[in-house]
Amino acid sequence: MRCSYIRLLVDDYEACFRFYRDVLKLPVLWGGEDTRYAEFDVGTATRLALNQREVIAEALGTDIVEADTTLPEQDRFSVIFEVEDVDAAAAGLVASGARQVSAPKDWTAWGIRAAHFRDPDGYLIEINRPIIPEDHAADRSQRT
C-alpha cells in the first residue's frame, strides 16, 4: 500500500484551485477551475488533490445526517492509498477491525475501483486501484 493522494474536500473549489495554482504555484496535473476535481504536483510521488466537498458527500451518502453524530456530515479531508487488489485489501482491513464506509466497487466516472473506511478518529480513508478500460487492456496485450 502506498499513499498516492492527499485529498482536500473543499467548499469553495474555484478559490482553492486558484490558491494552489496561482499562490503556491503548484503545477496542475489534471483539472481546472470548473471541474470540481483537480490534481497538483507537490514534488513527490504523492499528489495533492482538491475535490468539491459535496461531490464526495453525495457519492458516499454522507450528505445526510448519519446515525453516529460524532462524525461529520461531510468530510473535509481524506487520505488515499493505492493497492494492488482493492477487494483483498478491503477484506484484510475489515478483518483487522477497520470500519468500512463503502464496499469495493468500480467508480467508473473516477477511473478507479475503491473502498472507503474511517480511522478511529473518523477521518476518511480510501483504498483504490486505477481501472484499465477493457479496450486499453486489449491494446496492451496486442503490443506485448
From TrEMBL:
GO terms, molecular function: dioxygenase activity; lyase activity; metal ion binding; methylmalonyl-CoA epimerase activity
Pfam families: Glyoxalase
Ranges where the VOC domain occurs: 2-130
Statement: the UniProt record of this protein carries the keyword Oxidoreductase: yes
CDD domains xrefs: VOC_like
Alphabetical list of Gene3D superfamilies matching this protein: 2,3-Dihydroxybiphenyl 1,2-Dioxygenase, domain 1
The UniProt record lists the keyword Coiled coil: no
Keywords: Dioxygenase, Lyase, Metal-binding, Oxidoreductase
Domain of life of the native organism: Bacteria
Gene Ontology BP, a term: L-methylmalonyl-CoA metabolic process
Record PANTHER family: METHYLMALONYL-COA EPIMERASE (PTHR43048), RING-CLEAVING DIOXYGENASE-RELATED (PTHR43048:SF4)
Protein name: Catechol 2,3-dioxygenase-like lactoylglutathione lyase family enzyme
Originating species: Murinocardiopsis flavida
